[in-house]
Amino acid sequence: MNLAGLEEYLFTAGLTLAFVATIASIAIGRRHFAAALRESGLNARKLAIAIGILAIFVFAEAAFVVPTQQLFFDDAIYQAGALDLLHTGQAWMCNYGSPSLCYSGQIYHEPIGTSFNIAIAFAIGGINSGAAYNAEFFLGGVAVFMTFLVALVMTGDFTASAFAELLMALSPALLTWARPTTSDMPMLAYSLVALFCVLVFMKKKKAITLSAAVFSLAVLTYMKVDALAYIIVIPAMFLVLDESSMGKSLALNFKRLKDHLMDTEFLVILLLLVLAVSPEAVYTVHELVSGSYGYQGAYLQNSCVSPGSANSTIVANGKIGIQEFDANICSNLEFWADAFDKEYIVQPLAFTALGILGAALMAVYDRRLLLAIGGWFLVFFLIYTSFYAGSVTYGVDWRFMLSLIAQASIFGGYGASKVIETIREGNHGQ
Description:
Blueprint: H1 6-28, H2 30-39, H3 44-64, H4 74-88, E1 93-97, E2 102-106, H5 113-125, H6 129-155, H7 158-169, H8 172-177, H9 184-203, H10 207-221, H11 230-242, H12 246-260, H13 264-290, E3 299-301, E4 313-315, H14 322-334, H15 349-365, H16 367-386, H17 402-429
Antiparallel strand pairs: 1-2, 3-4
């Protein structure tokens, strides 16, 4: 190991620590996780149904979707990074080296999370593109099942959760991007894992559930630079949902923090968390400040005017900005209305209609839930719509919509549940 590559070893060490700590915390605290799920209404029959819905996704993906490299260069870079992680432990793409040592390499503008997952797949299934695609496929399945668990703990409504999982399983965006090697699928899967762990901590405030929550969030930050937003989004969702009001939630959780600040368990978790996230935090801040992401000279389609007309294209003047938002907003709204079916960029209109219905009904029955899920959706919609390459018509960047599919599915599941409940009540009233 030389000093020039030390930073890359620290990335690997930080993510490995967070990953192992997350798995260990869930395993040790499994009784608390199981209790939280039972209290949310889960039983063996309902679990079997959820697994059956997951099987629908697995069958649809395996039977109808051909594994294809869709994101050129990035796809190869993630796999090359996985090779280096596996052979040398360095979190970079090697340009010159041997099987055991890299002399010259570079860090990609995304964190190492995607390559880390692929490296695990390479270790299990051998070094081949099929193993890389199957790693993403596995994470797609995780995202489907975790959508069910997140929705169940949030709502306590099995019907809403099962329909949310089904909508997720049949989402064309998820089915399309469940095999190519991109950073969006890992971010989706790990964001749902982290949110689930935080929701369990909300119900079972134990040191071990806190450990699972904070370390799963740490793992998430290594998946994509954009995942840094979850450092704010998920704790905010916790505060919204934890108590009867945000004010009460803030007061009670601040008191809990103060009461346990010097507890040995808390201090150990805090120390390990700092060690785990420090390399990624430094890298992410540096990327956000200095990374250009290739915006210079990029031409954007102004999706709110007709192609070929005046001002139909603009030149990007930054990574994120109002000008970029104005250009992307129409296409990113039209995505939800099945407007791009000829380009295989589709969110079925029926799914969107159910989601809108669900959001409207949440406004009536559970405004805190609407605020939590709606805020989660809105943050990432605004981030990508303001990003110069965030339009669904910008190359293959409609993959960014994966960050919004779970929220839309949970809304849709809630809407479907309320419709079924109304029909049942109507039948009982006859």
